[in-house]
Amino acid sequence: MPRIVKLGVSRPATGPLLPDPEPREVRYTLISTDDHLVEPPETFEGRMPRKFADRAPRVVETEEGHEVWLFEDTPYYQVGFMAVAGRPKQDYRMEPSRFEELRPGCYRIKDRVKDQDINGVWASLNFPSGVTGFGGTLFSEAKDQELGFECVRAWNDWLFEDWYGPFPERTIPLGLTFLSDPEKGAQEIRRNAARGFKSTTIPEQPHTVGLPSCFDEYWDPIVRACAETDTVLSLHVGSAGPSPSPEGAPRMELGATMFQAQAFTSCAQWLWSAYPARYPDLKITMSEGGIAWVGGLIDRLDNIMTRSGYGQNWPDPKNSPSDVLRRNFWFTMIDDPSTISTRHAIGVENIMAESDYPHGDGTWPDTQSVMAKLLKDVPDDEARMITHQNAARLYRHPLPEVCVP
Question: What is the DSSP letter of 245?
Answer without folding.
Answer: -
